[in-house]
Design brief:
single chain; alpha/beta; 5-stranded mixed beta sheet; 16 helices; elongated; binds zinc ion
């Protein structure tokens, strides 16, 4: 079988035929060149208007990189015709294997983008002996195409989250669709300000925003403000993941303070290596941690009391009636306010302040997948961390859309993989 036969099977162009295939002498990486020719009597197509037009002249030969075969780089070699278009003027003809002035064929670009979902961009570049820039550029094209072609109808529930990125306190705001039938990243914005979230709603559109039934977010003030303004009809839920994260932070603070106090007073360091133990759910503890916990419970430490308050609060989420959950919440807050543990008291105050939004959790139960936000949060952090190449917001944005956006791809590309 000839290479031409294979190419005609996987990538056939109506108005072009494959010509000679040859080795490139002296190439650092083994390379094949495949000639392309216009089919006899075919007329070139204007790249601007897409109509057949009379030929004008021919440009020098150009090379377009195709999917590598057996470790060999493959290039299409073709001298593009120019057309004399009566509407557009003199234009380069349309070549179905490539878009615009790119050097990578569409097929190769989609090929790289698809591997970049499974491997890091650096690994893709190494595996296919290409550059990081080519991989980035392919992913970027895939994301742009996908976002232009994605279907945004029927979005009922969204989750809003933020992740820290780069060093220092820089944030990204991420908006997910969290409907049970469709979970994906919808939008990424820089920072976590009022302006950031407003630009999401601007992009999403007024009509779609009004159709939202559920919005799930943290208690972050700028978000609360914008959500009330832009999705006022939706049930706004404070999600469990974020609230428990606030409690985790409070416990961390109590523990750090108490460790220092104990040390200063000459007590043995009973709290060392207990950080994760106090943050984990009891059912997730290892045997060793379990023993250590029972040991700790004998002491009347603020850290332990905070831990017990946190564990008690887990009950809140199991209620089915908002009324009884509300009663539980009030009792828990009163108890915590009497605890004399400042970081925990701050959490209680915050929960009291947002009581109605907290109880919305029970009105929305079963109608959205709020747990999804936590899963996405982990993946998003991993994506931005893994991709140390992304120094710019644009780089991070492209990587996140590619990894979490569930973006559509053109049908033809699937034939290669
Ligand atoms: Zn034209």
């Amino acid at each position: 079988m000839q290479i031409k036969t294979i190419l005609n099977r996987v990538q056939k162009f109506k108005s072009f035929v494959y010509g000679a295939v040859r080795w490139v002498d002296g190439a650092r990486i083994p390379t094949l060149e495949v000639e392309l020719h216009p089919r006899a009597n075919s007329r070139p197509v204007c790249s601007d208007c897409g109509r057949q037009r009379p030929g004008y002249d021919r440009l020098p030969v150009r090379r377009f990189e195709f999917i590598p075969m057996w470790g060999h780089k493959v290039f299409f070699v073709y001298a593009p015709r120019r057309v004399e278009c009566r509407d557009c003027g003199v234009r380069v003809e349309r070549m179905p294997w490539v878009k615009g002035k790119h050097r990578l064929t569409e097929a190769y670009s989609w090929f790289l983008a698809s591997w970049a979902k499974r491997l890091s961009w650096k690994e893709v570049a190494e595996a296919f002996r290409t550059t990081w820039d080519h991989v980035f550029f392919s992913v970027e094209r895939a994301v742009i195409w996908g976002r232009e072609h994605q279907d945004l109808s029927g979005v009922k529930a969204i989750g809003i989250d933020e992740i820290a990125w780069q060093r220092g306190h820089k944030y990204l705001t991420l908006v997910y669709q969290i409907d049970s039938h469709c979970k994906r990243l919808l939008w990424v914005g820089e920072k976590r300000t009022v302006k950031t979230l407003l630009s999401f709603f601007h992009w999403f559109g007024k009509e779609r925003s009004e159709m939202l039934g559920f919005v799930c977010s943290d208690m972050w003030k700028p978000y609360l403000k914008v959500i009330a303004k832009k999705a006022g009809d939706a049930i706004h839920v404070l999600d469990r993941f974020h609230i428990m994260a606030h409690m985790g932070k409070a416990i961390d603070e109590v523990r750090a303070q108490e460790t220092n106090e104990l040390k200063a007073n000459g007590y043995e360091p009973i709290l060392t290596k207990t950080r994760w133990l106090l943050l984990k759910r009891p059912e997730n503890l290892t045997d060793k941690q379990d023993t250590k916990l029972s040991e700790l419970l004998q002491y009347n430490l603020k850290s332990i009391r905070s831990y017990l308050l946190k564990e008690e609060f887990q009950l809140f989420w199991t209620y089915s009636s908002a009324y009884w959950a509300g009663r539980f919440l009030d009792k828990w807050c009163t108890k915590t306010m009497r605890s004399k543990i400042d970081p925990m008291k701050r959490v209680a105050k915050m929960l009291r302040k947002h009581r109605p939004l907290l109880l919305n959790w029970f009105r929305a139960k079963g109608q959205m997948s709020s747990g999804v936000v936590e899963g996405f949060n982990t993946k998003a952090k991993l994506t931005t961390r893994k991709a140390y190449g992304f120094r710019t917001f644009h780089g991070a944005e492209i990587a996140l859309y590619h990894a979490l956006g569930a973006l559509p791809e053109p049908k033809v590309t699937h034939e290669f993989f």
